Structures are given as structure tokens and as C-alpha cells.
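Figure S7 source data.
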Amino acid sequence: MIKGTNFIGSTPSKEGTAQLFANNPANGEAFPESFSVATTSEIDDAVAKATQAFQVYKSIAPAKKADFLEAIADEIMALGDALVARACGESGLPEGRIQGERGRTCNQLKMFANLVREGSWVNATIDTAIPDRAPAPKPDLRKMEVAIGPVAIFGASNFPLAFSTAGGDTASALAAGNPVIVKAHESHLGTNEMVSQAILKAAQKTGMPEGVFSMVNGGIPVGQHLVKHPQIKAVGFTGSFRGGKALFDLANQRDEPIPVYAEMGSINPTFIFPNKLKESPADLGKAVAGSVSMGVGQFCTNPGLLVGIQSPELEAFSSALSQALADTAPSTMLNKGIAESYYANRKALLEEKGVTLSGNATSMGDNRGQGLTATVPASEFLKNTKLHEEIFGPFTLLVVCENGSEMKQVAQSLQGQLTGTLLATESDMIQNTETVDALSQKVGRILFNGMPTGVEVCPAMHHGGPFPASTNGKYTSVGTDAIYRFTRSICYQNWPDQMLPTELKAENPMGVWRKVNGELSK
Ligand code: NAP
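C-alpha cells for the predicted NAP complex:
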């Protein structure tokens, strides 16, 4: 049952008078429950509990931590259809999408459970002593990754489950051994509370310390208080550039600056090369339209920028794209603010010099997003940075270049992105190596003949890109390596074996992979 409380550790708490309401973007109606905005004392209590929990949770046995993560997945599934219905109601996303996202959320939790149980993720590196080395003896040095402390996680609007309360950020922070405090996204307050209850039930069933998880509702002041709290040691965020950068700046102004891993947006440039285009321009146009309109364009990997060289084939591509977008039924966007921003940003872009609309730019006015495309000559794109900004929704801008050299300049002009895509033959790649190289310098993931939407959750995934796509392009928010956002290294020098963490002991009782004197071994 949804109570509209914060959870300060396992304690439901409604100290303040300020309230929030959840809305259904499909009909604009508010859900009946009110949600209590956390007071500063509730936030402080949550952080105090997390700080205390950290002393136990950081060194809890890996198998117990894995049990906890798996129990969260079980409890989420036990919420059954009620969770799916609430998440659909609060996000406007269809049932199939939410069911898929629930599966992904549970799989992420299980993936981190497996990672933790196996143990090699700590990257144990051992250089044994050489006491008789001349001119000075070499000490015994043993390094591994360890937890950092309480982590603040901001739920994302566009993934009510997989990037929210028990999403990849929370799963990876908990897996590393850090207590988590979630700041709920205002778009899906009920979904957030249901998942919070599932996490707390799992914590109780598996004997986790009180304070390992807390959840607070509220707006910008709540998030800011959390990020400024001296006991918070890192932040995970997915959302707008404005929000992510504001939190990043705030964290850097603290007496003790902390890392903010913010994934802030991307136009995911897609370069369409001539030989590939000749194969079947209309089919390519339809395939790109499918990616642009997927999830009403509300994916951070949405291909918002297309780049091609002028030709009859590019025109055929453009008209097939425009037609396919017009044929795609408009769907409800995540919330009123996102729908309004989509239409307002699109309108502003269409008024920029050189931009030509391909299709009907009427706005739906009922939170539904209709797909659209426009074209602009590369010469204008290169002069106007406004054309480089993300329009969150089912819109894509086709940049028309005069030749390959202009295409290369477009690639060189781009800011950091999550993904870049080559729609190309191998001969296109060989003929355009400088463009391919320029694009690869801008992105965290580069695709050959695929669509950037659809982010596989696996160890080799890198979902993060050079600034401004994310605040630290070295780290990923998807896949097992997401855990390293919430760890630090510690090196033990000449430490007695029995006092070392299990993963570094001479006998390697967990049998983890370790680099011992430069060689991988178990
Ligand atoms: P958002 O406005 O950045 O908000 C995300 C979260 O951060 C919310 O909980 C928000 O609190 C909080 N927040 C925002 N600014 C803050 C600040 N200055 N200080 C402290 N907390 C702050 O993102 P959104 O609500 O998800 O969507 C808005 C826009 O973000 C979209 O239109 C789109 O352009 C972009 N977006 C991009 C992606 C992507 O992956 N590229 C994903 C989602 C959204 P409140 O709830 O109180 O506002």
C-alpha cells in the first residue's frame, strides 16, 4: 500500500507539511495519495543511519550482499501487476515496456549479485616483497577496490524502474558495499515508494544493517541538501544537463568535493555514408525512424542528429524517414514538463537559420509526442551551436553535407556524446577514416550498422561519454563496471596475512582472479 512517506532507514516518516502529488500524464489526473517532502532533519537522519550502516555493510560477506541483491529482485517481482500498473500510470509508458524494464531491473540486480559472489571485481593486485632487492628492499604491496560510504542516487524520469529506485545506480552502489539514499523522481512517486518497500523488505529478510537503504521525496532543495551533506561520498544521476551540472558544481564546492556521476544527455550522431545509402535508402530511413520514435524518443541514446552527403539517395532516405515518423502514432510522454519542453525546443530549433521542416510540426497539446525531422545544411550547422543541443523526444535533425570533407568537419565540431553510429559499408569506413576517427574521439560507444537505442547490460558495455554527455567519461552507468563509480582503491603495505581482506590473503580462499607479480592467476 502506498503511504506517501519517506523511508528513513526502515522507518516510514512524514515529518514535514509540504506535499507532492503524482500525475498520470495520459489524462492529467493526480493520483489520490500525497507524498511527504522530506525535511532537512529527515535527510540528516537518513544520512546518519547510512553512515552507521556503512561500518557493517562495507565488509559484510560477499555471499550475504549477493543474497540481499537477489532478494530485492524477488521482492520487486512479488509486487506483481500492481507495480506494472502504477509505473504505467505514472509514466505513460506501455505495459510491455514496463514489464521489460522490470525484467532488466531484476537482471541487473542478479548480475551484480553474481559479480559480488564471484569476487574478482575487486581487482586484487599483489606485488610480493623482495627483501634482498638492491639498493632497497621491495615491500609487499596488495591493492584492491573497496566501498566509499553513503551514496545519493537520483531517480531518472525516463526509466521509472531500471534507472530509478532499484536501478543500475542503486544496484551497483549496494554491490560495492555502500548504503544508498534515493531521491525519488517527482514523475513516479508511487512506483518509487513500492520499490523502496521491496528493497527494505529484502534488507530485513537478509539481515542487512538498519540504514542500508533510505528514500526521500522532494524537489531541488531536497536533492541539494543531500549532495551537500558531508557524509555523502558520491552521487549517481541521470537527467538533464542543467540538473546534472548543477549537482556536479555543488559537489565540487563542498569542503570535501565528491564525485558526481551524471549522465546528462546526448544527440547520438549517426553518420550515413554514401555506399551504404545506395543499398536501400528507404529501408534505412524507416529503420532510423523506428529508433527515433522508440519510447517516444525519450532515451538518452535517441539518434537526434543524422549526417549525410547530399545525393538523390539521401533525399529518398529523408522522405522515407519523414513519412515513417508521420505514420507513427503519437504517444504519451513521461510528464507534462517533458512534453512541453519537447514542443518548445523543437519550435525554437525550427526557427533557426537554414532549418527546413520535413513534415507537420503541429504540437499535440495533450502530452503526446509526435515524431518529426528537419534538415539543415552543414554550413549552417557548423556555425550555430544551438543546433547541437539535445531535443528530448522523437525528433531528429538531418545535417546535409556537400562532401566528405564537410562531413568530417561536422564530426570534429561535435561535443562529447554517449554514442556515435556509422551506417556504412566497410569500404565507406576505409574511404572516411578521418571522419570515423573524429567521431570515435567524441563518444563512449561507437556502432557499426546498428541503432543506438537499446543498451545491452553486460560487462563490455560502456554507457557514458566525454563531457557534456557525462561528468566523467571514464565511467559507465550500465554493465558490471558501473560498480567502479562507487569504489576507491586501497593498498596494504607489509600487512600481516591474517589481517588482510579475504581477497588479498596469500591462500586466496575465495579463489578470485588476481594479478600477482604481473600475472593473472587464481
Ligand atoms: P532533471 O530536470 O535533470 O531532473 C532529474 C532529477 O534531478 C530530479 O529529481 C530533479 O529534481 C533533480 N534536479 C534537477 N535539477 C536539480 C538541481 N539544480 N539541484 C538538485 N536537484 C536537481 O531531468 P528530468 O526531470 O528527468 O527531465 C527533464 C529533462 O532532462 C528532459 O526534458 C530531458 O531534456 C532531460 N533528460 C535527459 C535524459 C537523458 O538520458 N539524456 C534523461 C532524462 C531526462 P525535481 O524532480 O525536483 O525537479
